[in-house]
Structures are given as structure tokens and as C-alpha cells.
Amino acid sequence: MKAAAASRTGPWSDAMVQRGHDVSILTSREGKVSGENLRIVNSRFPTPSNRAGLGRRFLQEIRLGRDLSRLLEGLSPKVDLAIITSPPFFMASLCARASKRAGIPYVFDVRDRYPAVLFDLGVVASEGIIGRTLSRIETRNYAGARLLTTVTSGLTKDLEKSVGSVKVAKVINGFDGRHFTEENLSRPKRQSFTIAYHGRLGRFYEVDALRRIILEVEKLDGEVRFVLAGELEEARSSGDWGATEFIEELPLSMLAEFLSECHLGICLLKETEAMTKALPAKVFDFLGAGLPVLTSPMGELSAFLLKRGVGLTFERTDPLAIASAIVAFKNDPGRQERMATNVRTLRPSLDRRFQSVRFAEHLESLE
Asked: Which of 58, 280, 289, 332 lies at 20 to 30 Å from 138 by C-alpha?
């Protein structure tokens, strides 16, 4: 599946099976398994849609969560441990409640901290009835877990404040090495200097700033190209994108090939507290394809790239300054090569298969 949760569940499951464990995957209607010795249990309901409004999406999460809870409680023989990944927050919360009801220990994996994200976006007031209710659900999720896992230092510190350091483990995100292979790094680059983005341009990203950067770069250097891949109809209709090339969402193998032919990845986050602690999965795909990454504003993502010498980072999202920096980078082959060398040095440690072994070790420590 293309869903973010599925992209990490697959390597986790493979690692657990290789270490001699029996693994069942409870997933939505579309879920499929490509590995051996994995049991898949499908819900009657589809994956919640990213295109749906918040209210409709939450209802879809609840419907899926209730059905997965039913399936979890009905598994035979009874499982020794459930691994629940969030978001989707409501789906994960319902599965956590079902695990407690069935007496199944569970690990709660936190990729984005809800409801804090909703508070930051102004969707829900933290002190309102809904906000306080969501916070209580979050607290119960964490309190009932044997272990909390997460992906960034900022989220790790937040969770440690809630449950203590002994109960929290950080396992960073990564790319899928089955698709983002070493061989792709030798693919020829596009003739024009090309900047790539992939995924959705949702609430967490600076969509208008990206569009303005593209237009400013075109004024400064018409040889620079931007290619955006994914479900981007809403963003595309939001204004003038100049000569930007839009392509459909790609399967991982094709995405890896496409990205490896580009020169730079770009990821512009919103200036919110939640996003200062984020390391989006798409950034690891860029690195897995051998690309340096341009990002703003300052936060954990920028610090990660800056420390390893694999990115262009900006304290704030200033389209004019970023456009000028892009053109300067394009005209500096030596800097491009140094940064690409740093990426190639770093990328083996970012393969999800490597990270999944660490994840499995944390699970086995609970026995």
C-alpha cells in the first residue's frame, strides 16, 4: 500500500518474521502482503482518505478503528503483543482500547502527536471540550502501553515528560531499501537542474511559499526545473505555478527511479511547534535516492540535515532568499558533489530494514 503506516509496517513485520516471530497484520480493505510467512487480516473498510475534510476523515478513522478492534479481539490464538501506529489517531485509540479490553499488551507508535497537531493548526481549541477530551484519550493511550516508540528527539522528550524515559524508545524514520537501491544512484541525471517534491501538499506544508519560490527561480534562471509528484490537484489549482511539471503519484519503485534522476529535494514545513519536531518520511526518500534536501524553517529537520552536510536549510521561509540560494547551488557543481557524497555516506544507516532491526530489538526487550 502507498499509505504511510503501511510503508513502515512492512519492514517491521519482515524483521520480526526473520527473527522467528509469528506476525499478523490487521489493515484496511486495500492492504496486501508481499512477504512470506505473514498473515493478513483485512477490514471491511478502506483507508481513511486524505482528500476528505477533517470531519469526514475522522468518521472514516472511527469506522475503520472499530472494525480493526473487532478483528484484533477475535484473533486466534490470542496474540502476545499488539503494535499500534498513530496516526490515524482515532483508529489507533480504538485499537488501544480494544487491546486493554482483551488483555493484550500493546506498543503505541507515535509518528505525529495528536491532538497537539490539531491545536497547532487551529482546528481544535486545546482548552475547549473537544480539545480536553482528545487530550484525555491521548493520555490513556500512552498510560496503557508497554512501550511508546517515536521518530524524533523532540517527540521523544515530549513523551518522556508524560510517561518517563524508561517507557519511550526512539527509532528514526527511513527509506525502503528494496526500492531505493544503490543501483539507482548511478542513473543519469536529467539534463536540466531539477528540484523534486513528492507526496501531498497538505496542511503541514507551505504551499503558497513553494509556488512563489518556483516563480522567483524562473525569473532568475530559466534552466531550473521543478517536478511535483503526487495527489496535487488542490494545490495545482491554487494559483500560477509557472512551468512546473506535475506528475501522478508513483509506485515506490518508479518513485525511486524518478527521484534519483533529479538534483535536489524540497520540503517546506509550516512554522508550528509540531513541525519543529518533525522528520517527514519524504525527506528520507530524497536521501535514499541520493538527493540533498532543501528545507525551512529551522527545527529538528533542518538541524538533522545541517549536521550531516546533506541539505540547504533556512531559518525562515523567505521565497526571494531561497530562490537565490537555489540558483547559486545550481551554479556550484563542486558544492553539489560534496553534498551528494555526504548523502551517499549517510544513506546506509537510514534504510528502513536497518531501523526495523532496532525496532524488533525494542519489542523483544519486553518479553
From this structure: 280
215 and 101 belong to one structural domain? no
Q: Are 195 and 264 in contact (CB under 8 A)?
A: yes
Residue 81 contacts residue 363 (beta carbons within 8 Å): yes
Dihedral, 110, 116, 120, 121 alpha carbons, nearest 10: 70
Q: Does residue 29 sit in the same domain as residue 83?
A: yes
The SS3 of residue 44 is coil
Q: Are residues 220 and 317 in the same domain?
A: yes
CATH code, domain with 38: 3.40.50.2000
Amino acid at 106: Y
Paired residues of 245 in beta bridges: 227
| Model pTM score | 0.89
Q: How far is CA 40 from CA 10, 24, 75, 251, in A?
A: 11, 6, 11, 21
Report d(CA 25, CA 121) in Å as an integer. 32
Q: What is the pLDDT of residues 128-185, one digit of tens each?
A: 999 999 999 999 999 999 999 999 999 999 999 999 999 999 998 899 998 999 999 9
Closest CA to 279 of 257, 247, 308, 258: 308
75-114, pLDDT tens digit by residue? 988 899 999 999 989 999 999 999 999 999 999 999 988 9
Instruction: Judge if 40 and 158 occupy the same domain.
Output: yes
Which residues form the domain of 258? 183-350
